[in-house]
Amino acid sequence: MPRRLVLDGSWAALWKAGEHVSTVLVVLAVHARHADDAQWSGWLPLSVRKVAALARCSTTTVTKALRALEGLSLVERRMVPHRRHPGVRVAHYRLAAALFPRGAEPWTKVPADLVYSRSWPSDFTGTRFRDARLAHLDGAAARHTWLALMAIGPIHDGTAYVEECVSTRLDACVQEALDEFEAEHFPNGVPPVVSAETQERFMAEWDALEWVDFAMLNARDGARAAIEARALAAVPSMKALARLTGLRPSAFVARPSLYHLVNRCSPGDTGGFTR
Question: pTM of whole model > 0.70?
């Protein structure tokens, strides 16, 4: 995903065309490949049902999104004869070259497992953001905003960055466990040759360490928070983020819960009715 799409207003135009347009576009783009000298990507089979399943929306929503993308000249569709069934025609699509990076311009990788894991369309909400100003977004707005932040942020491969942080933390955990094992079992120093039985004992103790899993979760969560923080640092204000995404500035304003509205107390208060 090129950074240019966010900075030139194209990403905001997608949101104004429909809430699920950017979600559908990402599903389509994951499968497309672009040649540098072409104006369009190659033709690919289009299954509206498959796109709807991956985007977790209805086929009607996908059809509306495709029409909106065609109106923006970002997608073209055509019907072609089926290769093995005469008389049957199937839909194909291709994406405009504007959706792909040009030359050495900055771009961000959107991993395919983000789409195929289905956790992104169904579970991604604003509560995944660390910044409180983004925690009120619904699923579609949160996904749209997250992709915009990833595009303008300095980390262009979020998956690789997270895995690198986790790998670094894992190495540190191994070293910590090894130091503790050596201090307990070899108080006079580690012998030049360690028996296979001793190695198996260390691995058994390592498998029993619950804090390792906890450390891995913290490392992964911390890496994602770092990606978000560094991306937000590139945005001067929430008003600027609203302009880049196409959302209204009020979308980034905290809304009191129904409990606080009924009790007429501020979100910071802990109880009691006010008269």
Answer: yes
